[in-house]
Design the sequence.
């Protein structure tokens, strides 16, 4: 049996009492006790406005009005008890009621802003899942782990990008960093990821994938905008192709030794190819059982501590490398946050590939998507 809603004349007082915040009421009661103990009379009445003001920061308008009316009633009692002049008491109570009304209006605006912020966060999360789709722990022959942190924690996403797909031409991936911040950077990151996903499936040659991204950015970006990126592919067993377009060099871990994979010839960032005239080059390196490759953005290597020292990523990777990529990435991310004191000032992305021992299986043609993997403690 469904109970009918209460609409009787005594229903609204119960709702007011239920909405009343506890802490502001305790503060008002505390002021009353101080007045009763000191006998100072009406001078304490203006301080009762502390109650509705505090209620406006956490409660709704009903709670604010409830605390304000309680404060007004107690103020009248204190004024009469202290023998205050009627004119002085009227002014004090009028001020208290005006403050209560203003606080109630403020609480309404705060609640509306909170609802808008919740809607924006919901849209940001949807955008994150569309742009940075979850990557499974295994893609083709690789074990994979990803960790991403946006500098604007409320936005959840930023200008760093990554994607990893399994194609007819092997596993392919991209890690990049868009110049700038905010919504324009997110829009550019979405463009790059979208073009990469399409080109990775269509183009047999990895350099053609990069060229396709370059052409798209040349049509859509301004003259001062660009994207640094590393595009990699695994076309055949034991061989990894890397194209570096102005990005930080990936770190290769082999036999517990960390080596930076520098390009044979420096290439400009994506979007600036027509200005420089330099074409990216394909760097081929062996990648066999037990090898690991860490790709990252400059939010990691340019993170500074209180002494303005950069985070030593290569040293951290050497310390934390293990057979579980998710544990390695989790340890690196935790150490990075400790290095900066808990809050990053730039977007930071880490993507780690590991070739398990005796893998040797060809990559599947199933798309793996792109995105963030929630990591566990090492």
Sequence:
């Amino acid at each position: 049996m469904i109970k009918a809603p209460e609409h009787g004349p005594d229903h609204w007082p119960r709702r007011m009492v239920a909405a009343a915040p506890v802490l502001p009421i305790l503060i008002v009661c505390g002021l009353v006790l101080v007045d009763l103990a000191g006998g100072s009379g009406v001078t304490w009445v203006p301080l009762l406005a502390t109650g509705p003001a505090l209620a406006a920061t956490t409660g709704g308008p009903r709670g604010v009005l409830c605390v304000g009316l309680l404060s007004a009633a107690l103020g009248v009692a204190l004024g009469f008890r202290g023998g205050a002049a009627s004119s002085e008491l009227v002014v004090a109570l009028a001020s208290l009621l005006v403050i209560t009304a203003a606080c109630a209006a403020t609480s309404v605006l705060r609640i509306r802003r909170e609802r808008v912020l919740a809607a924006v966060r919901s849209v940001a999360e949807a955008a994150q899942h569309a742009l940075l789709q979850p990557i499974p722990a295994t893609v083709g022959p690789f074990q994979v782990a990803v960790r991403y942190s946006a500098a604007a924690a409320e936005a959840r996403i930023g200008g760093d990008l990554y994607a990893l797909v399994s194609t007819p031409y092997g596993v392919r991936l991209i890690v990049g960093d868009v110049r700038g911040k905010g919504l324009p950077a997110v829009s550019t990151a979405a463009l790059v990821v979208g073009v990469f996903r399409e080109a990775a499936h269509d183009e047999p040659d990895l350099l053609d994938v990069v060229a396709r991204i370059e052409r798209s950015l040349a049509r859509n970006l301004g003259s001062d905008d660009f994207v640094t990126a590393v595009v990699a592919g695994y076309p055949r067993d034991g061989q990894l192709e890397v194209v570096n377009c102005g990005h930080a060099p990936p770190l290769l871990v082999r036999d517990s030794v960390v080596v930076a994979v520098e390009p044979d010839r420096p290439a400009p960032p994506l979007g600036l190819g027509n200005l420089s005239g330099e074409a990216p080059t394909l760097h081929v390196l062996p990648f066999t059982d037990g090898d690991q490759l860490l790709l990252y953005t400059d939010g990691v290597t340019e993170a500074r501590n209180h002494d303005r020292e950069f985070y030593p990523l290569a040293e951290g990777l050497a310390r934390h490398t293990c057979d579980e990529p998710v544990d390695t990435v989790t340890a690196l991310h935790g150490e990075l946050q400790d290095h900066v004191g808990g809050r990053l000032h730039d977007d930071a992305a880490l993507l780690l590939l590991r070739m398990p021992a005796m893998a040797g299986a060809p990559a599947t043609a199933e798309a793996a998507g792109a995105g963030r993997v929630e990591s566990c403690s090492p």
Summary: The chain has eleven helices and eleven strands.
